């Protein structure tokens, strides 16, 4: 599903290749048949606006949005398992699922990174790809709401994914959940998290407990053509 490949690429850390090959991305988006016309137009506007920025500005904005705090993290298991010990085995299971479909990751990539998961889904038969999107629809809705709250145009991409998923999400429940959330990307919030993790680290060292074990629910997943068929999760 080419639309998933396009959105996967747009959710990646912005790089010079996207600026250089933006017309190919526009053409790929136009060739898709699964997004509603309005959604496809909104994604196209997002791409136009993104690439009209200076690359360094786009990169700085991306890092501010997705790399500070956990609320808008693009790591799926952050929103499923948090810091639970289940997360380690969940990573292993998802990685094995990718490998069964011929998707090999390099050492930089985390298997639950949303752009990678979308790339994986894009390789699957249509019904399986939609099922994979439906599995993560509650996470997509939560991220969309948080991004919209921060007035980020990236919310557009999550609108498109939810449209493709064609599933019902309780928007009122999502809105209620985020209404009372404190921002976790402020300097004060980040300092508090760092201090908490330092205390936890030393406590775990004292107990000699460093194993990460557990279980997860599985996702389903894919990749695609030429320029768009690139390794996700690249270096920054």
Automatic annotation (TrEMBL):
Complexes and interactors: Binds specifically to the NarG subunit of the apoenzyme complex at two distinct sites, one interfering with membrane anchoring and another being involved in molybdenum insertion.
GO molecular function: metallochaperone activity; unfolded protein binding
GO cellular component: cytoplasm
Top-level division of the source organism's lineage: Bacteria
Annotated keywords: Chaperone, Cytoplasm, Nitrate assimilation
Main localisation: cytoplasm
Protein name, UniProt field: Nitrate reductase molybdenum cofactor assembly chaperone NarJ
Lineage of producing organism: Bacteria, Pseudomonadati, Pseudomonadota, Gammaproteobacteria, Enterobacterales
Protein's gene: narJ
Record family assignment: Belongs to the NarJ/NarW family.
UniProt-listed Gene3D superfamilies: TorD-like
Classification via InterPro entries: DMSO/NO3_reduct_chaperone, NO3_reductase_chaperone_NarJ, TorD-like_sf
GO biological process: chaperone-mediated protein complex assembly; nitrate assimilation
Pfam family, one: Nitrate_red_del
Keyword Manganese recorded: no
Cell location: Cytoplasm
């Amino acid at each position: 599903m080419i639309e998933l490949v396009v959105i996967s690429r747009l959710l990646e850390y912005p790089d010079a290749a996207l600026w250089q090959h933006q017309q190919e991305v526009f053409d790929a988006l136009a060739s898709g048949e699964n997004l509603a016309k309005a959604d496809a137009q909104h994604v196209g506007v997002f791409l136009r606006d993104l690439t009209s920025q200076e690359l360094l500005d786009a990169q700085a904005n991306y890092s501010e949005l997705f790399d500070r705090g956990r609320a808008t993290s693009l790591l799926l298991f952050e929103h499923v398992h948090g810091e639970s010990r289940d997360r380690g085995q969940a990573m292993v299971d998802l990685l094995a699922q990718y490998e069964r479909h011929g998707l090999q990751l390099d050492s930089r990539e985390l298997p639950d990174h949303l752009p990678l998961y979308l790339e994986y889904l894009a390789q699957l038969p249509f019904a399986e790809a939609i099922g994979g999107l439906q599995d993560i629809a509650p996470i997509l809705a939560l991220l969309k709401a948080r991004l919209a709250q921060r007035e980020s145009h990236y919310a557009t991409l999550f609108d498109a994914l939810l449209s493709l998923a064609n599933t019902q999400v309780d928007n009122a429940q999502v809105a209620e959940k985020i209404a009372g959330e404190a921002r976790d990307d402020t300097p004060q919030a980040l300092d508090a998290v760092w201090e908490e993790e330092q205390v936890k680290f030393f406590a775990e060292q004292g107990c000699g407990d460093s194993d990460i074990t557990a279980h997860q629910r599985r996702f389903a997943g894919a990749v695609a053509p030429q320029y768009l068929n690139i390794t996700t999760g690249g270096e920054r």
